[in-house]
Amino acid sequence: MVGTDLKAKLMTMQGLDERLKSHCCEMMTEHVNHRCEDHSNSFDCPDNLILYSGRTKSYGIIVHDGGSSVIEIQFCPWCGIKLSNA
Ligand SMILES: [Zn+2]
Ligand SMILES: [Zn+2]
């Protein structure tokens, strides 16, 4: 349900809304834009896997160990594209 809703939003807002910008693939976009009503903090939500930093343009996998650890990733786990701009 959430995925379908997001897809619809992406189609109507593509290129118009910076908050919901698209990423390398549908899966990545979905995870980066993941918002949960039950968990206001990204690190508290077990469904939230990817953290994207618009400032550094880097992607990280959230480590759900109770803290706020993120493992930076160089390649997309879904489509395999190189993520880092370096
Ligand atoms: Zn991807
Ligand atoms: Zn959640």
Overview of this structure, please?
The protein is an alpha+beta fold. The protein has one domain. The chain has helices spanning 2-13, 26-32, and strands at residues 50-53, 58-63, 69-73. It has a 3-stranded antiparallel beta sheet. The chain is globular and about 30 Å long. The model is unreliable at 13-18 (pLDDT under 50). The structure holds zinc ion (2 copies).
Observed structural traits:
86 residues, 2 helices, binds zinc ion
Give a brief rundown of this model.
The chain is α+β, with helices and mostly antiparallel strands and 86 residues long. Helix content is 22%, strand content 17%. It contains 2 helices and 3 strands; from the N terminus they run ααβββ.
Bound molecules: zinc ion
The proportion of residues in beta strands is: 15-25%
**Unreliably modeled segments:** 13-18
Task: Give the biggest beta sheet.
Answer: 3 strands, antiparallel
What number of structural domains do the residues give? Answer: 1
Residue share in helices? Answer: 10-25%
Secondary structure topology:
Elements: H1 2-13, H2 26-32, E1 50-53, E2 58-63, E3 69-73
Antiparallel strand pairs: 1-2, 2-3
Bound molecules: zinc ion (ZN) (2 copies).
One zinc ion binds at residues 24-25, 28, 76, 78-79, 81.
